[in-house]
Amino acid sequence: MTRIKKTRKAGDAAPKHAPRTKKSERVLARKKQDSGNKAGSRQNPEGSAAKGSQAAKDPRIGSKKPVALGTEVMASQAKVAKTKLTDEQRLLQLEEDPRLNQLLDMLEEGRDLSAADQQWLEQQLAKIETLMQKLGIEDLDETDIVSNDSDEALLDKFDTGLAQLQNYQKE
């Protein structure tokens, strides 16, 4: 038997191919599927990532409302604080004032005060006195003077205290 060499030519019996068309004339069967993020999406997150998150935007960003700065805020807070203080709180605040205590210490030492300091001190003491009268608080110095009238009264108090101490020690 003789051997026949295979060829690529199909011959007359082979099916005919459609003629070739140019690439620009060809129509794709379907649109190419998008996969992944667009190029540069990591550096430009607002363009690609936040399509539906526009409603979740922070409302404070871009606000046109004026913002009060340091001194105005402090002044408004001081006004609110002054109106809420009761008479007792005002009295405590006046008595704990460091300037008042310093000036009173200077007076006790016998130093002379300037006219402005003296005037301020008198005003503060007058405020304290009026608040004490409003609250019905008596000055302790005046009550001590009344009770220290006689030495015999003090001696009697001492004797009663001594008697109570002795009774306690017996028990």
Automatic annotation (TrEMBL):
Record's signal peptide: none
Region (Disordered) residue spans: 1-66
Cited InterPro entries: YihI
Annotated Polar residues bias: 36-46
Start-end of Basic and acidic residues biased regions: 22-35
Keywords from the named record: GTPase activation, Ribosome biogenesis
UniProt cross-references to Pfam families, sorted A to Z: YihI
Purpose: A GTPase-activating protein (GAP) that modifies Der/EngA GTPase function. May play a role in ribosome biogenesis.
HAMAP family for this protein: GAP_YihI
Family: Belongs to the YihI family.
Subunit and interaction comment: Interacts with Der.
Name assigned to this protein: Der GTPase-activating protein YihI
Organism name: Shewanella dokdonensis
Gene name linked to the record: yihI
